[in-house]
Amino acid sequence: MSSKFPEDATPVAGLALSKKTALVTGASRGIGRAVAARLGRLGASLAICARSRGELERTAESLRNEGMRVLPIVADLTRADEIQQMIEQTCTQLGEIEILVNNAGVGLFGPFHERSESEWDAVLDTNLKSVFLASRAVASRMIRLGRGHIINISSLASKSAFPGGAIYCASKWGLMGLTACMAEELRSHGIRVSVVCPGSVATDFSPHSGRDPATLLQPGDVAYAVAMLVTQSPQSFISEVDVRPLRKA
Hints:
Helix content is 41%, strand content 16%. The chain is an alpha/beta fold.
């Protein structure tokens, strides 16, 4: 586990998410980092999680320099015990989690018959099992609060098949089913569950050689969608958001 946030860091009053705590997984770079920054600028206290301590600490320092209250936590999200420790540490130091953004993900691509069992496990454990484990860990606490929002970052690959995408698509199609069932089970407790499905995003997640940058989304585009979800009117919830670039490839 990692260091505390600075003692003089305090929630920013008067903003939409002031006095709320958000946990963002896979937050050391790319989409997760952009989402965390957006929520922090809306006033949320932030717990950010990743496997790489170096990148995570650099992200935390950058966010703190903007005046945000940030708690970086190194954790393996495929392990239930580490997730439980992460949740308890966040709640102890920042307060009960009202926003969980399940963003951590990996991609391995290529013909399915050439992929190994260990590659299957790596993708499904990170992209699907970790969402189940993290959401399960916060759900009971949100139920006691009577409110909360869980947002799962999926992909348009959850709806479109393409050569070489078998394992990745399987994880994201599964995530859509998990999200839909979670939403039905938790809505009566005042908890929203939503999914964001972006198209290709300009990150180092996968190469985009030869693509016109204008046909790629930016991490901030996904962060904007997340911010929209957590600031919507209280009597309804948006269950699914597809995010596409304005220009086609």
